[in-house]
Here is the input.
Amino acid sequence: MKFYEKFTTRSNQLQSLLCLGLDPEWEKLPASIKTSDKPQFTFCKEIVDATHDIVVSYKPNIAFFERFGFRGIEQFENLVGHITSNYPHVSIVADVKRGDLANTAKEYAKYYFGDLKVDTVTLSPYMGSDSIEPFLEYKDHAVFLLCLTSNPTSKDLQKIKTSTGLNFYEEVANLSKSLNLKFKDQVGIVVGATHPEELGQIRKAYPELAFLIPGYGAQGGNLSELMKVCARNSLINSSRSIIFNSTGSDFAVKARQKAEEINREMRELF
Here is the structure.
């Protein structure tokens, strides 16, 4: 099943847009987990096993694994394998933010889509379309291009006016639309929850694009505001506000409780 069909089908079934971010930051892991041979994997696996029936997608961030070198990468691969083997109906957004020359992009695409078989990845569009298209050769997969991100200094570059009079993030949205016409339903954009006004404007201009919306929860995005403007072909990501609700052995139970709370609110607004 192609990514777009997979995530929209799941979203409609659950009446939810919830994407659960898996960011196993070492300093915040429960003490009981840190003694495991594979602490990042064990932490994420327990949360996945506790929430697989109530989330639309998972978004593991590779940075929290890469920090530990080959042992961390092994755990990332173990996590992806666990989800794809046991919960294939739940899509995986690999948050890797790659963006490099075409021959390099081809290698990244082979790893993430050919070998790991994640459903989609996050990419930086800064180097242009030839750094993106190698990923789009994998027809059942998709990409989310960084458009207007949720961090405070995103304005440093993303809101610079170009020669066309548009903001740089609007140029990215235009590029995404063009690529999505060529590679149907394979290109979406990342738009931060901390920019609700701009998010609404972008959504009106690009109704066909899938949105990945980080920044809800710990970063302060308001769910009611988001749900009014984002449309149903969106994933609203929450990471820290779900996975770090307890430092005890009940962390997975607490994560599920928080995810259920968010889902209840989403269903009311769906």
